[in-house]
Each structure stands twice: as structure tokens, then as C-alpha cells.
Amino acid sequence: MFVRRNDARRRRLVVDPSQTTNVGLAEGTETAPSMASQEGAFSSDVRAYSFGAERRNHHKTTDLIPKRIVSYLLVVLFMLICLGMLNLGSIKSPQWESQIGREGVSSLAIHGRGSLASWFSSFLLIMTGLASLQIYALRQHRCDDYRGTYRLWIWIAALMVVASVNCVVNLGGLLTQLFESLTSSSLTQRPWLLITIKVSALTLLVARGLFEVRESRGSLAWVVLVWLGYSAAALMQLPTINESLTDLNPDMIVGNCTLVATIALVMAHLNYARFVFFQAHGLIKPRVRRQQLVQPKSVAKLK
């Protein structure tokens, strides 16, 4: 009878949680704290998730920025390993043609759409766009950015999305066909003109990027590598240069130049995001500009 009475009391406590704390404390048993902690669980407002799902316990987007040197070097090592694996697959794929077929060989090619290398480049460009949005979220709080140059990173993010689409769909070819249909002039017969336009646009973008990340020396080095890689890949499309490097497999050279430039683009954004994060938290002192050192005449007269 004693056991049944305890079971009945336990069932009543579960049904009526308002009596849990009082009865538990009155009896002085060890289950009182646990029963009191379960009061919210049996109330009318039942939680489907624990308190760890609340917003204050979520991870921040800035946690994805490699802040430690070890994390930064691990990202660089991961990029180099991926580059090496793509080159290895491209070199060994002709030997595996009997097992994987022609489609498998083309999918492992280092250059060309529909390959694993093009997917990797598209993925890196998407990640670069996300890094641009993170830089924008930090740069918009800078105190001395009176002209609002932080809005540039929104345009860079949009440009990275378009570039990632171009890795899958030949947007350059579509624009070329549209230009030829409107002007009745062929750009394919004048490849030097098309390549000049590409290199000029790339140079303007890189020059603007160098000015934007001028405070971070690491980002400057990565941006210069971006310009070298993409410029070399564009110049390789010239027939004279392509024919002169026939023995060296021009497709392999173009693919590696494009991949190295894309990796450098990702690392430039990550490095600058890391720099902006440190500067925003006071770990890096901002450089004093000359305009701030020169006092205006009105201030000098007041003194």
C-alpha cells in the first residue's frame, strides 16, 4: 500500500505541476530540485527545443573568419591540396578512360565547363561573395568612412555571384553573340580586341581593390596574384601564344592560372575580413590619415 500511495502521489504531481515544488520541499526529498526544474517542461507553454536554440547562443558569422595563424594556414593548405588533387585527376584521367569513359575524362579536366575544376571555381566564388557580405557588415560601422565606400562590397558580392554563374554558363559567349548581332561585327575574328577588353576591365577592378585593401599588406599580395593569374589565363587565349605553348598543354596552363587566381581571390577576401575584424575590435590600430593630422584654420584660431 505504501508503494501504491507514492505512485499515486507521483501521478498527481505530473498532472498538476503547481504542486511539484511545494510538495517536494515539504517532504524534504532529494527529488525536489529536479521536480522544480521540470515545472516549466510540464506547463502549458511546452518548449520544443532547449535554451541552446535561442539567438543569444547561436554562432556568429564572424566565427567563420580564420583569426588564428594556424587556422589561416590550414585554409591555405586546404586550397593547395584541392589544387593538387584536381591536377592529379586531370593528369591521370586519360589513363582511366577505359574505366570512366570520355565523359569521366572531361569531368576531371582542369579546364572547361562541366568539369570538377569549374565546379570548384564556382564554389570558391560563392564563398568569396559571402566573405564580401561579411566585410560589408563590418565596414559599415567604420567611423571615418564619410563617403560610404563600404557599399563597394555589396557590388563585389554581386559580381562574385555573376562570376560563379559564368563558371557553369558561358556568359561571355552570350555577350559576344549579342554584341555581334547588334553591331554586325565579329569579335571572334579579332581575339586581341576581346582579350584587351577583358584585361582592361580586370586591371580597373584590381586597381580599385588594391586601393580598398591598401591597409592590409597580405591582402595586397593576394590581389596582385589575382591579377597575374587571370591576366595570364586571358592572354593564353591569343592564337599566337596558344600555338607557341602547344607542347606544354595550354589547357593545363589556363586551368591552373584560373584556379590559382580564384584561390587568391578567396584568400584576399578572407585575409581582409580578418584584418577588418581585428581592427574593429581594437587589435590593430588604424593608420592616422594626413587629413586628420592637419588642423583646420578655424580650430587653430579657437586655440
Provide structural commentary:
The chain is globular and about 65 Å long. The protein has 14 helices and no strands. The relative contact order is 0.09. With 303 residues, the chain is mainly α. The longest helix is centred in the C-terminal third of the chain and has 31 residues. About 10% of the residues have low confidence. α4 packs antiparallel against α12, α6 runs antiparallel to α7 and α9 runs antiparallel to α10. Helix content is 68%, strand content 0%.
Question: How would you summarize this macromolecular structure in one to three sentences?
Answer:
Helix content is 68%, strand content 0%. The protein has 14 helices and no strands.
For the secondary structure, the number of strands is 0
Dominant shape:
globular
Main beta-sheet annotation: none
Task: Tell me, rounded to a whole number, the average pLDDT.
Answer: 82
**Residue share in β-strands:** under 5%
Secondary-structure element pattern, one letter each: HHHHHHHHHHHHHH
**In which range does the helix fraction lie?**
55-70%
* End-to-end separation: 94 Å
Q: Could you say which structural class the secondary elements and strand pairing correspond to? A: mainly alpha
Oligomer: single chain
